[in-house]
Amino acid sequence: MTIYKAPLDDQRYTLFNVLGAEAVLTKLEGGEGHTRDLLDAVLEEAGRLSEAVLAPYNASGDEEGCHFDKATHTVTTPKGFKEAFKAFAEGGWTGLIQAERFGGQGLPNVMGTATSEIFQGGNLAWSLYPLLSEGACHAMEMHGTEEQQDTYLKPIVEGRWTGTMCLTEPQAGSDLGLLKTRAEPGENGSYKITGTKIFISAGEHDLAQNIVHLVLARLPDAPAGSRGISMFIVPKFKVNADGSLGERNSVAAGAIEHKMGLRGSATCVMNFDAAEGFLIGAPHKGLAAMFTMMNAARLGVGVQGLALSERALQNSTNYARERLQGRALSGPKFPDKPADNLMVQPDVRRMLLTQRSLVEASRALLLYTSLQTDVEARGADEATRKQASDLVAFLIPIAKGVVTELAQECTKEALQVYGGHGYIAENGVEQFVRDARIITLYEGTTGIQAADLLGRKILQLQGTGFKLFLQEILAFCQQHAQDAALASLIGPLAKHAKEWADLTLALAQRVQANPEELGAAAMDYLYYSGYITLAYMSARGAAALANSNQPEAFKQAKRDNATFYFARILPRSLTHKAAIEAGVDTIPAIA
């Protein structure tokens, strides 16, 4: 049985001391009431719910999994999941960041990110059910008609219904231009949707009265490729004019996947057999509409990586403190006991500090990016909103791609701390390793994030967001250049920032000469960029201690994290730089 304690102190420090979230949020349009007192209270309540209601069913939900009835095409979620969702909805969490005009509470996105970490840390498999709804709501708010919003969005915000994203097909994974699902005109402005979608999280379950699927399909006159995709609302149950549920629509789960991890989350094959659907947004513009959901989802997946890393860290740290084994190399540290604990071993501390420094920096990156989405949506002027939008676009592939890959490392190191006991299911830590494995794959694999960062955000968009972010890092370095307490951080950070700019320019020139260089360098460029980005976040965490009234032990832990990151983690960027400079010729063709 694993433990989980919501990391409220670390979240608050990052939000309010490092990022100055209260000052940012209260200056935004409609943000006057988003004070620290309010946000603190929300975090506190989220922590209670996660610890008391969600976390107890994390291990049992994994062991039991979901049950699929082939006769009725229905899914039953693990014991406790339905009751947890009811408590979640009754607490208003389904509408936390949704607009008040749809029945939501209208809190900022950054609070959605912070509370999502808490809920996912408690029970990641369970948290996928409301997470998909959040993305569906965002897409309908941005692209739906007023009637569609009233009919489908409001019940999701209330927690009576849930939503999904239906993209992938057996022959069309990341290349959505290959999808075959058809949309034929029907009666009264409706369409008949026919096709099969796979890997649909929360596609069928017993938590809510209705499920609203957002489905990508092709109209009869659709052009070939990704330019011919439209998006449709397809509810599990049809909706009557008065908002009540009507007859069952002809959409059903054909199976659920038997997975390596996240077994409490139903991943479904969904069959649409002339199901009634309604066009959302403009014809043939469905891919753009779906990416409204996708960017938010990618940030959310990064949060999943953070949540798993945090829980793995908590448990491996606790185990290292309690496990008595061997003696310190310099002599016994606990002579009154039969052995010292694992903490006396430098290599164990290395594994724990690797986790801790990556968790701290990742949390700052994710909350920073989420805070920028609030500025993007409600900033004081167009220039401010545009700048935030450019920063978000640049950081999303790093926040998703790098943080989820580092979650593999963190959960692996946690298991390693346990030794052989980590491999045993009853200790629970092996579940973190299994659950973490999928997050590098869905919502775009790490390779796709790398191609997006280098191919689109750097080359196609001419590095607009990158330049803004680099300017921010250099300004931070200049601001703290004379701070002796930060000297070991600021000098290396400034050096790496300049190197990042030079390497990016050189790489862009190489890609222009040979497009194959893009694919050869993209993954290493993603990691390289990620390690420098996290170094900046780590340095900001250390710099904010000067204006913090936290206990000295808390401050020392933050200093240790930053020192360890710069000494032991940041040098990894040199390997990726060397790989980038090696070029495409070192990746020969394979017969």
TrEMBL record:
Keyword Flavoprotein appears in the UniProt entry: yes
Listed Pfam families: Acyl-CoA_dh_1, Acyl-CoA_dh_C, Acyl-CoA_dh_M, Acyl-CoA_dh_N
EC number: 1.3.99.41
Cofactor dependence: FAD
Acetyl-CoA dehydrogenase-like C-terminal domain segment(s): 469-587
Annotated function: Involved in the assimilation of dimethylsulphoniopropionate (DMSP), an important compound in the fixation of carbon in marine phytoplankton, by mediating the conversion of 3-(methylthio)propanoyl-CoA (MMPA-CoA) to 3-(methylthio)acryloyl-CoA (MTA-CoA).
Name of the protein: 3-methylmercaptopropionyl-CoA dehydrogenase
